[in-house]
Design brief:
This protein is α+β, with helices and mostly antiparallel strands. The chain is built from six helices and nine strands. It has a five-stranded antiparallel β-sheet with strand order 1-2-3-4-5, sandwiched between helices. A four-stranded antiparallel β-sheet has the order 6-8-7-9. It is globular. It starts with 11 loop residues before the first strand and ends in a 5-residue tail after the last strand.
């Protein structure tokens, strides 16, 4: 399955949000998002410790990706001030993995669901065949976001998370678009020594 050619991170808008590329002027906002201990508890990388680390993170994670021909690497900004308060990214390639994070003071306002739905709409328009997302079983709020996006639970698996290097049990969710209804992404299942389906989810 292959996706159509998509513009790299086109600007998207919702009722409350602007989704755009991260820019050099966003370094302080990047630091605020990725240094937040509550936000980064369930992320694979360690929280940023300095503005210098934020600058390096921007160069490696965002500027480099924006040079690629396709991609979805968004800063999530409130329309009121256009300052990033979170992020959404969708990997273009096997898995089409959706990831997201939001500063803790903006939790429980529906912001991340609103942002992710805008990205999924664009992805479907760009002929992305399916999207997957995973969350730590200890972070059920992230699973709630996935369900509100119309994703469904598929299976659970264990993985040694890097670079933090500790075991994590993940739930994998999936949303198929018209090209692959009924199809399941099995890579995490096949690659995990421990995997199972939880009943009642």
């Amino acid at each position: 399955m292959t996706a159509g050619r998509a513009e790299n991170t086109p600007v998207l808008g919702t009722a409350r949000l602007v989704l755009r590329r991260f820019e050099e002027g966003d370094i302080n906002a990047i630091y605020a998002i990725f240094s937040d201990e509550r936000v980064n508890r369930f992320l694979p990388w360690f929280p940023l410790k300095s503005i210098e680390e934020a600058e390096a993170f921007f160069e490696e994670r965002y500027r480099a990706n924006y040079k690629k021909p396709t991609g979805y690497n968004y800063a999530v900004c409130l329309r009121t001030n256009n300052v990033p308060v979170g992020y959404v990214h969708l990997n273009v390639g096997e898995g089409y993995d959706l990831g997201y994070g939001l500063k803790s003071e903006f939790w429980h306002q529906g912001i991340m669901t609103e942002a992710c739905l805008a990205v999924l709409k664009r992805a479907e328009e760009d002929k992305i065949p399916y999207v997957t997302a995973t969350h730590d079983v200890n972070n059920p709020a992230s699973g709630n976001v996935m369900r509100r996006m119309g994703m469904w639970y598929v299976y659970t698996y264990e993985e040694q998370w890097q670079p933090k290097d500790f075991p994590v049990t993940f739930r994998m969710y999936q949303k198929n678009f018209s090209a692959c209804k009924g199809w399941t992404f099995r890579k995490y299942w096949d690659g995990a020594k421990v995997h199972y389906v939880e009943l009642g989810l």
